[in-house]
Design brief:
Elements lengths: L17 E5 L19 H25 L7 H4 L11 E7 L13 E6 L5 E6 L6 E4 L6 E3 L15 E4 L1 H6 L9 E4 L6 E8 L13 H6 L4 H10 L11 H12 L3
Antiparallel strand pairs: 1-2, 2-9, 3-8, 4-7, 4-9, 5-6, 5-8
């Protein structure tokens, strides 16, 4: 609880939430040993992670096609978990009830403003448990994201897909990572699950070959600069790996 701060510049206290991280399956260990009560659902969790990764791979292939990369699987091959370790993590989140009154300056922030560190995030939320907000780029205001925007046509809430920082790097800032936060005041507890999809550790954050990105010119430069600043990269010439990017982001989040 409060060990992680997703917005260390904006908030003095760590986020009032709990998280349980589950690593991806590996050739040595199908899945990390889980404590009860999760241990009885190991097979289900493994299947869920595999399905999440397959969905991310499909989305990454679609992105490669849309960006007209010479090899449409440019992104997807870099996320092939059979080829090595990655920062991918499946996270169960729990926001306990709190009796702390909301500050007079605004809502009670349960996960500070941030963008996700990987390539894509799949977010799963429960009906009746709102709280997620997006920072709009046009007006700079926070907009709530309904759990199920079409309850009459969708029987279950859809999966929310966030673009993460690495896609901003790879596309020269053309794709912007989504800035979001979680706010709600006391009341009920809240659960959510996030599948943070990351590339293989040694993948470099270079610009993807793409005529579409070329055509975008330098319009992504502002976004790219924001990303560079987050991890202390000084300019175009400095290349870092996905592993180093994640290390630098986590260092700030956990105040290491
Ligand atoms: O709980 C949520 O809805 C979002 C959590 C989140 O954005 C994160 O953990 O990165
Ligand atoms: Fe997030």
């Amino acid at each position: 609880m409060a060990g992680e701060s997703l917005d260390p510049e904006g908030q003095k206290q760590g986020d009032p939430k709990e998280a349980f991280n589950i690593g991806p399956p590996s050739p040595l260990l199908q899945l990390q040993p889980l404590p009860p009560p999760l241990s009885s659902s190991t097979a289900l969790i493994l299947r869920f992670q595999t399905a999440c990764h397959a969905l991310c791979t499909t989305i990454l292939n679609l992105l490669g096609t849309a960006l007209e990369t010479p090899d449409p699987s440019w992104f997807a091959v870099r996320h092939d978990q059979s080829l090595g370790p990655s920062g991918t993590i499946f996270r169960l989140l729990y926001y306990p009830q709190t009796t702390t009154p909301s500050p007079s300056s605004g809502p009670c922030i349960r996960a500070g403003a941030h963008s996700d560190y990987g390539s894509l995030t799949l977010l799963f939320r429960l009906p009746g448990q709102p709280g997620l907000e997006l920072l709009t780029t046009s007006s700079g205001t926070w907009k709530p994201v309904p759990v199920n925007p079409s309850p009459t046509t969708l029987s279950t809430p859809p999966i929310l897909v966030n673009i993460g920082d690495l896609l901003s790097f790879w596309t020269g800032g053309m794709l912007k990572s989504t800035v979001h936060r979680v706010t709600f005041s006391g009341g009920e507890e809240r659960h959510s699950m996030a599948y943070f999809c990351h590339p293989l550790d040694e993948v470099e954050l270079v610009r993807v070959p793409s005529a579409v990105i070329e055509g975008f010119g330098d319009r992504g430069e502002g976004e790219l600069e924001v990303q560079r600043r987050k991890v202390g990269v000084t300019g175009e010439g400095e290349r870092i790996t996905a592993k180093e990017h994640l290390r630098r982001r986590l260092e700030v989040t956990y105040g290491l």
